[in-house]
Amino acid sequence: MMLFNELVLASHNAGKLKELQAMLGDAVRVRSIGEFSDIEPEETGLSFIENAILKARNAARISGLPALADDSGLAVDHLGGAPGIYSARYAGGQGDAANNAKLLDALKDVPDAERGAQFVCALALLRHPDDPLPILCEGLWHGRILHSAQGEHGFGYDPLFWVPERDCSSAELAPKDKNQLSHRARAMAQLKQRLGIA
Ligand SMILES: O=P(O)(O)OP(=O)(O)OP(=O)(O)OC[C@H]1O[C@@H](n2cnc3c(O)ncnc32)[C@H](O)[C@@H]1O
Ligand SMILES: [Mg+2]
């Protein structure tokens, strides 16, 4: 049962915002945290869940609205799950191109069979900043890291993420297809069920 008709999305990532908005549809009025503040909270948590809660709590406090945050990243088997929660900061906060270059370099001589990886998404919804029981949902997407970038859609690590079920990179998927298959899509499907808007 939906208890509100408006929420703020606690993300400063344009690619994520677009996907989350498309997935939520018009069941709820979505505001962006950018309307309220340009300051990004420090992601000091040691898990995706902790960081999602921290970002949502900060947004709920700033906006006075229920807040939904997404903390996500790429966990590469050969790297023991790195970059994981540090995915956005993998190359020192220099952006997607630098992150992708560093990842390709880290896997330079690694054969296909050992290039398995998962995209991870944790969603946290807080109805207010002191919500003692956030709604938490998670999604995983299994794939493999390519040897070079492919595709123009999406954002972040998408050009390097091979999607076995579609035989292409996630940056080669049409946005509507990525939004049905991705880690974010899986977490969002759970959230919509919890909210009764599935
Ligand atoms: O924290 P916010 O403001 O939401 O924006 P952010 O970009 O910093 O987001 P995260 O802290 O959750 O870091 C996520 C990292 O994982 C990458 N990532 C997450 N989901 C992705 C997806 O669907 N496709 C490609 N890369 C993704 C993304 O590019 C970032 O480098
Ligand atoms: Mg972030």
UniProtKB/TrEMBL annotation:
What UniProt keywords apply to this chain's record, in alphabetical order?
Answer: Hydrolase, Magnesium, Metal-binding, Nucleotide metabolism, Nucleotide-binding
Q: What is its EC number?
A: 3.6.1.66
Entry-linked CDD domains: HAM1
Cross-referenced Gene3D superfamilies: 3.90.950.10
Reactions that this protein is recorded to catalyse: XTP + H2O = XMP + diphosphate + H(+); ITP + H2O = IMP + diphosphate + H(+); dITP + H2O = dIMP + diphosphate + H(+)
Name the Gene Ontology molecular function terms of this record.
Answer: ITP diphosphatase activity
Q: Give the positions the UniProt entry annotates as the active site.
A: D71 (proton acceptor)
Q: Could you give the cofactor binding note from the entry?
A: Binds 1 Mg(2+) ion per subunit.
Q: Which residues bind substrate?
A: S11, H12, N13, A14, G15, K16, S72, F155, G156, Y157, D158, K178, H183, R184
Q: Report the SUPFAM superfamilies cross-referenced here.
A: ITPase-like
Q: Looking at its record, which EC class is this enzyme?
A: hydrolase
Its required cofactor(s), as named, are: Mg(2+)
Coiled-coil region(s) at which residues? none
Residues that hold Mg(2+) according to the record:
E42, D71
User: Which one Pfam family would you cite for this protein?
Assistant: Ham1p_like
Name the protein family: Belongs to the HAM1 NTPase family.
- What does this chain do? Pyrophosphatase that catalyzes the hydrolysis of nucleoside triphosphates to their monophosphate derivatives, with a high preference for the non-canonical purine nucleotides XTP (xanthosine triphosphate), dITP (deoxyinosine triphosphate) and ITP. Seems to function as a house-cleaning enzyme that removes non-canonical purine nucleotides from the nucleotide pool, thus preventing their incorporation into DNA/RNA and avoiding chromosomal lesions.
Quaternary organization: Homodimer.
The protein here is known as: dITP/XTP pyrophosphatase
**Natural source organism:** Stutzerimonas chloritidismutans (Pseudomonas chloritidismutans)
**Gene behind the chain:** rdgB
